[in-house]
UniProtKB/TrEMBL annotation:
Belongs to the LDH/MDH superfamily. MDH type 1 family. PANTHER family: MALATE AND LACTATE DEHYDROGENASE, MALATE DEHYDROGENASE, MITOCHONDRIAL. The active site is at H202 (proton acceptor). The keyword Magnesium does not apply. It comes from the Eukaryota. This is Malate dehydrogenase. Its EC number is 1.1.1.37. It comes from Paraglomus brasilianum. Substrate binds at R106, R112, N144, R178.
Length: 341
């Protein structure tokens, strides 16, 4: 019979090592694993050979998701936890990476900031548990509003004296995934070849695509329409899903890509891995902006090098100028909440 706290479903009980001399497989925990993002993300992670233990936590339904995934013939052991019997503690203890898609999604007419009221508390509680039971884990935060949830996570870790800015990442990969897809649609190219830089944050005007840095050229109207589509791509999905949620499948794809990059750098010791992500950053510190998304080189300790934004066009500078005040407001809101709660 299952115990609800832990459903251990394969026989791999110790850390597995891959055939590569430097590679060591990892424990990855997904918090919010039974949700719209959590389930497809967990499926994609089950296929990742760098993962020896996939640990799933949600407030409901995780044993079923874990049982289902555990039948897939890839190497990761899958365990599922709910809050009973210290489930969260067991889910994250010893995790190398914790990926967090827990929280409510948008409905049509809402901004990501409208989710703050509900998601801030969820994220704060999960961060407190991470600080206690997985203080060395690398943290990939998906829950919206990312511009505020990353500062909330940071403050909670600081309260417990376990904050290392190199290990806290806001996941903005979906903006880049969308940008390269949208550009490839326009230019009729392979999306894998359309590498687009997107900086700033993860909501509306704080999402700043730097299309002048990509190898394609755009007419002015085309550029404006494309920029708007990248900034508000999330709204397209929210509208199409008509009240049943926001992007889940493309987000799972994006988060699986980010987690894989992190594991390749942190666990496998690969060099030169660059992903865009929202991290503690000095790039706009003089404007009072503590966190900023840009291309970041990942290394064994997490953030290795934050790449500068680079040369931008006048139009992109205007976009950055519009993004900064909104970003500052979002970040300050998260910090204030975490300090007061
Ligand atoms: P969902 O409602 O389908 O799933 C969320 C899951 O979180 C649910 O299973 C729920 O039970 C769980 N949950 C709630 N409180 C929890 C807690 N305290 N501990 C653990 N689990 C908890 O929502 P979704 O579509 O998966 O979206 C999740 C979040 O991701 C939303 O906030 C959404 O806005 C955000 N999101 C971010 C991006 C991004 O690019 N960063 C993209 C898409 C969605
Ligand atoms: C997205 O970009 O799709 C997510 O942030 C979800 C949303 O609310 O749009």
């Amino acid at each position: 019979m299952f115990t609800l706290r832990q459903v251990t479903l394969t026989s791999i009980t110790k850390r597995a090592f891959s055939s590569s001399a430097v590679s060591q497989a990892a424990k990855v925990a997904v918090l919010g694993a039974a949700g719209g993002i959590g389930q497809p993300l967990s499926l994609l992670l089950k296929k990742n050979n760098l993962i020896s233990h996939l640990s799933l936590y949600d407030i409901v339904n995780t044993p079923g998701v874990a049982a289902d995934l555990s039948h897939i013939n890839t190497k990761a052991k899958v365990t599922g936890y709910v809050p009973d019997n210290d489930g969260l503690k067991h889910a994250i203890t010893g995790a190398d990476v914790v990926v967090i898609p827990a929280g409510v999604p948008r409905k049509p007419g809402m901004t990501r900031d409208d989710l703050f009221l509900t998601n801030a508390g969820i994220v704060r509680d999960l961060a407190t548990a991470v600080a206690q039971y997985a203080p060395k884990a690398h943290l990939a935060i998906i829950s919206n509003p990312v511009n505020s949830t990353v500062p909330i996570f940071t403050e909670a870790l600081k309260k417990h004296n376990v904050y290392d800015p190199r290990r806290v990442f806001g996941v903005t990969t979906l903006d880049i995934v969308r940008a390269s897809r949208f550009v490839s649609e326009l230019k009729d190219t392979d999306p894998a070849e359309a590498k687009i830089t997107v900086v700033g944050g993860h909501s509306g005007v704080t999402i700043v695509p730097l299309l002048s840095q990509c190898p394609f050229s755009f007419a002015e109207e085309e550029l404006k329409a494309l920029t708007y589509r990248i900034q508000f791509g999330g709204d397209e999905v929210v509208k199409a899903k008509a009240g049943t949620g926001s992007a889940t499948l493309s987000m799972a794809y994006a988060a699986a890509r980010f987690t894989d990059s992190l594991l390749r750098a942190v666990v496998n010791g690969e060099e030169g891995i660059i992903e865009p992500t929202f991290v503690k950053s000095d790039l706009y510190a003089s404007d009072g902006i503590e966190f900023f998304a840009s291309n970041v080189e990942l290394g064994p300790d997490g953030v290795k090098k934050i790449h500068p934004v680079g040369k931008v066009s006048d139009y992109e500078q205007e976009l950055i100028n519009a993004a900064l005040p909104e970003l500052k407001k979002n970040i300050e809101k998260g910090i204030k909440f975490a300090k007061e709660n």
